[in-house]
Design brief:
mainly alpha; homodimer; Tetracycline Repressor, domain 2; 9 helices; elongated; DNA-binding
Chain lengths: 195, 195
DNA sequence: CATTTTACTGTCCCATAGGTCAATTATTGA
DNA sequence: TCAATAATTGACCTATGGGACAGTAAAATG
């Protein structure tokens, strides 16, 4: 058996191309032809590897999410204390190479389709469940159980909100601003000795 | 002069129809024909009142935003103390009739277009500037000036994040959850005697 | 009442997008 | 080496969408 099947390579190339086109063009403007061009291939090949446009973008979202997940996991593995785990989750979500307007634009376009694509909704659900479970396992060391729920929602909403702001006003919000905001939240919301 | 010009009525009907179609179909699926059908008119009329599709949706966003603004302003007028003004802003952003998945879906679709439509970006900028100024004028009574900036970002990001969550997981986040979250933030972030 | 302006419709046109398919070119494995 | 399988292309089809337009109905205005 070949080490890496060519179909896997192509699929990944096409997923990535799809994501890049999405950054520039949004969902409406992201045509199969443009995706093919971005990948340096013909339109036919896209539909050879993906059943249809929807499926292509579902896979694009899965991949984008997987990359983010890996970043968080890598940081989690290096974390030793509950607080470090919290930091790992948060900083993973604001890594330099992700926290960029164009990436956020693509992400937004995908999110906007969630209500009409059950598959995207499923992916979204998985993402959120993982985030929640990661946060809970760290927060439980600092807060009583019911307060944890509140803070989980607070952290996730803050992260999402900061990302959205990045997408809507490309300039004027740096990674550092975002991280500072998250730390500000934690320092006020967690018990004083937590850090 | 006529009391209400028919053109104003039509334009408003079409803006609203556009917004409703956006809720159901997203930007890609929102065609002029569907908007016309939703308004009970013919496609031609849409382009009679709006130069093109883009402009139609720009006006739809303006109107949606105006409605939200009015809700906040009405509450602000009834507020007497700085803290009540804070509450007004926050509660205005989570009024029952707005804080609904379908509305959020339309909003998301519009936001996803912001990077490619300077006009939408401008509207977005105005919205944000108003929010910021409203919040600052209230927060300045509780916090030193530089901390105000931080909390403004915190509040806006939280609001956006909670809205996004509503759009992505229609069930499982009520208006009350959202308000509780905001109050939780304020109670921890503002000086203890603030409320 | 006549004319000009405004409201509105339906048809037409062109471009393009998604998707199918047959044909062509590697790859592979026996 | 040769059949079989996979990769890839490009032509094609169909539907549809945005927009232009000509023409009709309805108001407004003088």
């Amino acid at each position: 058996m070949r080490l890496t099947k060519i179909s896997d390579i192509r699929k990944r190339e096409l997923r990535r191309a799809a994501f890049e086109v999405l950054q520039r063009e949004g969902m409406a403007g992201a045509t199969l032809e443009k995706v093919a061009a971005q990948a340096g291939a013909s339109k036919g090949i896209v539909l050879h590897y993906f059943a249809n446009k929807q499926q292509l973008f579902e896979h694009a979202m899965r991949e984008a999410n997987a990359v983010l997940k890996d970043a968080v996991v890598r940081r989690l593995n290096r974390a030793n204390t509950p607080f470090e785990r919290l930091e790992a989750i948060i900083e993973g979500n604001f890594e330099d190479r992700f926290f960029q307007p164009s990436i956020c634009h693509a992400w937004l376009s995908l999110c906007a389709e969630v209500p009409r694509d059950p598959q995207l909704a499923r992916i979204q659900k998985v993402i959120h469940a993982r985030m929640r479970s990661n946060l809970l396992s760290a927060l439980i060391h600092f807060l009583p159980e019911e307060e944890c729920e509140t803070v989980v929602l607070g952290i996730t909403a803050l992260i999402d909100g900061l990302w959205l702001r990045l997408g809507l006003q490309s300039e004027g919000l740096t990674r550092e601003d975002a991280l500072r905001q998250m730390r500000d939240y934690l320092s006020h919301r967690l018990p004083s000795g937590a850090a």
